[in-house]
TrEMBL record:
<keyword id="KW-0573">Peptidoglycan synthesis</keyword>
<dbReference type="GO" id="GO:0005886">
    <property type="term" value="C:plasma membrane"/>
</dbReference>
<feature type="transmembrane region" description="Helical">
    <location>
        <begin position="177"/>
        <end position="194"/>
    </location>
</feature>
<dbReference type="InterPro" id="IPR013437">
    <property type="entry name" value="FtsW"/>
</dbReference>
<comment type="function">
    <text>Peptidoglycan polymerase that is essential for cell division.</text>
</comment>
<dbReference type="GO" id="GO:0032153">
    <property type="term" value="C:cell division site"/>
</dbReference>
<keyword id="KW-0961">Cell wall biogenesis/degradation</keyword>
<keyword id="KW-0132">Cell division</keyword>
<dbReference type="GO" id="GO:0015648">
    <property type="term" value="F:lipid-linked peptidoglycan transporter activity"/>
</dbReference>
<protein>
    <recommendedName>
        <fullName>Probable peptidoglycan glycosyltransferase FtsW</fullName>
        <ecNumber>2.4.99.28</ecNumber>
    </recommendedName>
</protein>
<dbReference type="GO" id="GO:0008955">
    <property type="term" value="F:peptidoglycan glycosyltransferase activity"/>
</dbReference>
<dbReference type="GO" id="GO:0071555">
    <property type="term" value="P:cell wall organization"/>
</dbReference>
<dbReference type="GO" id="GO:0009252">
    <property type="term" value="P:peptidoglycan biosynthetic process"/>
</dbReference>
<keyword id="KW-0472">Membrane</keyword>
<keyword id="KW-0812">Transmembrane</keyword>
<keyword id="KW-0133">Cell shape</keyword>
<comment type="pathway">
    <text>Cell wall biogenesis; peptidoglycan biosynthesis.</text>
</comment>
């Protein structure tokens, strides 16, 4: 009888959100996205895996290993207090810069882009590490220099732009404009949340947009991407080929899709079907309903990040708050670019879909970002418990 009562008590405690010291909903959302990613990558990679390795499940096994590795790394990161990230944020940024230099010297080149460092089990993409490192550094900078950011232009606003410029220069040498744009938008979002003056914010945003436009204009292949995006059917077998095939996948999906595994476009009609354009295969096989479900899950994850950031500010944990908002902006904008590119709404940029696309570096880094969100929420809940205990002691004395 006592054992039954104990089990009931444990069950009741698990069901009460106030007793949990972590956000269970965020865990389930992330795991669902990872599971969807494994299923869709498996389906999308059948043809290319069979052609390259004579083994239809080659990429599925690799993606499964990446998932296990991502969960293991996330478990370790979950144990690291936020004060450690704050203390060593500059060191992380320095390591990222070194990795970006190494990839330019001894990196693996694919389709003319040198973005990967071979590590045996998988190829490390330093650009993914640089994104998270920059956001961690910026969160720490905004805590240390908050007054300068709110008042002065050069001291508070230009310094982080110089740091960003260093990373952007190294990334553009790979070249990787997509990552630069994601970092720039997230950086502006974090500065805006920190209270930067609106006039300065708008001025730098205009400069940033003009810089991106210039970088597109001076590179012929980038211009071709923009022109093909505006009218992909003008050259459906040339510059517009990838986008037209992706749009066909969306069109075939209709409301309920063709059924899991029944995509036609993945039969090597659509290039990069299991990486950059995995969302197009998802749309073809699962239809509008499947697309809506996946986008809802990602929206919920972003909303969770914003709510955690708001909670961190409430308990005066500024570093965790800025970092949570930065991760939320990052996930939202990268999803927008990936889905928009697949649906023909923005030019193709080669960015992964968070927690879904094939790729070890992206999966590990984004899983680590989710773990940091969980850690921010955990420390907020510890602060809440501490405040409640103080109130109970104070009430008891009265």
């Amino acid at each position: 009888m006592q054992l039954i009562n104990t089990i009931k008590d444990l069950t009741n405690q698990w069901q009460k959100p106030s007793r949990a010291l972590y956000d269970r909903q965020l865990v389930w959302i992330s795991l669902c996205l990872m599971l969807i990613g494994l299923v869709i990558v498996t389906s999308a990679s059948f043809p290319i895996s069979s052609r390259l390795t004579n083994q239809p499940f080659h990429f599925m096994f690799r993606h499964g290993i990446f998932l296990l590795l991502a969960l293991a790394v996330s478990g370790v990161i979950l144990q690291i207090p936020l004060k450690r990230w704050f203390k060593y944020s500059s060191v992380l940024l320095f390591i990222s810069i070194l990795l970006l230099i190494v990839v330019l010297i001894a990196g693996k080149s694919v389709n003319g882009a040198s973005r990967w460092i071979p590590l045996g089990l998988f190829n490390l993409q330093p650009a993914e590490v640089a994104k998270l490192s920059l956001f961690i550094f910026m969160a720490g900078y905004l805590v240390r220099k908050n007054d300068e950011v709110r008042s002065t232009f050069f001291g508070g606003f230009i310094k982080p732009i110089i740091v960003f410029g260093t990373l952007a220069s190294l990334l553009l040498l790979q070249p990787d404009l997509g990552t630069v744009v994601v970092m720039l938008v997230t950086l502006f979002g974090m500065l805006f949340i920190a209270g930067a003056k609106l006039t300065q914010f708008l001025a730098l945003m205009v400069v940033g947009l003009m810089s991106v436009a210039t970088l597109i204009y001076i590179e012929p292949y980038r211009m071709r991407r923009v022109t093909s995006f505006l009218d992909p059917w003008e050259d459906p077998f040339g510059s517009g080929y990838q986008l037209t095939q992706s749009l066909m996948a969306f069109g075939r999906g209709e409301w309920l899709g063709q059924g899991l595994g029944n995509s036609i476009q993945k039969l090597e009609y659509l290039p990069e079907a299991h990486t950059d354009f995995v969302f197009a295969v998802l749309a073809e096989e699962l239809g509008f309903i499947g697309v809506l479900c996946v986008l809802t899950l990602i929206f919920c994850l972003v909303l969770k990040a914003i709510m955690i950031g708001h909670k961190a500010f409430k308990y005066d944990q500024l570093f965790g708050g800025y970092l949570a908002f930065g991760i939320g902006i990052w996930f939202a904008f990268q999803t927008l670019i990936n889905v928009g590119a697949a649906a023909g709404m923005v030019p193709t940029k080669g960015l992964t879909l968070p927690l879904i696309s094939y790729g070890g570096s992206s999966l590990i880094i984004m899983s680590s970002a989710v773990s940091i969100l969980l850690r921010v929420d955990h420390e907020c809940r510890l602060s809440e418990l501490s405040e409640n205990k103080k109130e109970q002691i104070s009430d008891g004395k009265k």
